Structure prediction request, 340 residues.
Amino acid sequence: MANIGSLDCAVWEFTLGCNLRCSHCGSSAGKARPDELNTKEAFELCEMLASVMCKEVCVMGGEPLLRGDFVPVSRCVKQLGMKLSIVSNGTLVEQFAETLHGLEPEVVGISLDGMMETHEKIRGPGTWEATIKGIDSLRALGMQTTVITTVSKLNFRDLPQMRELLRAKGVNWQIQTAMPFGNFSREHTLDPEEFYATALFIAKERIREKSQRLRIAGAHCYGYYSKVLPGCSWDGCTAGRSTIGITSNGGIVGCLSMGNDSHIAGNVRERAFKDIWEDPDAFPYTRRFTEDDLGENCRGCKHGPKCGGGCSSVSLALTGKLHNDPYCFYSIERKSKART
Prediction:
């Protein structure tokens, strides 16, 4: 029997168009797809998501603020009873701050990938100041703001300075790991030791949460089952089980970070979203996972049946296979112990 849960969150690539050309962009964003959903289709998609009792819609890009119908479609999400969250590169946020405030999103995520020199090496000249102004404008309006940092060899040494900067701004901070797909080069991917060092950094800051203003978390790519680090249990990849990705031209995929054109389960122009979501044959990599599906990095692990081999996007990016994530705390700690 397929494991179909409730749909907690739909992550919507509202457009692939973007005003930046970031070196680590997994979507290779820049130009909008020629066949992106039009406004009428976007409203219809909102209704489809509401029909399956979707709890939250996260609107992202590319850069979602570039689409002229961003505001009415976002309002539609709220009017249909779903929570709204927004992810932006931050460079246009200052001029849209009042508009964003009026939409009453649960949170606005803003990408910041280092201190000025590093951030602009990744995202381009002038982007750091514009992004900082965007963050400040959201906070001035009292909006829940999460800074999202994608970590690689290019910027992981900036984390301590970023901590001090962001602590003063009263934001949340999500750290995620850059993986070699889209624009990002494999040579800049964190090695396992660097990956584990960033996890230690996150864990240390979380311990200090009660006395500090900065709330910090690792994304789903951080895990799993550490004997040292707290909070590392993992119930398997949520792609196609409780979360979904939507491409800007209506493709439905378990997770946009899985290489969003390669695991398409259907398109809302051809089938109703409800039919795709409730199809027992859709998303078999998570819904029909068994221990026999584990790859060589995870086979025989006592946590494998529950963990499912870690993050699907990391597993695919690093090994070309599902259920085979090598960036696992349990695995890294075991290998480190064996070397000592």
In short: The mean pLDDT is 93.
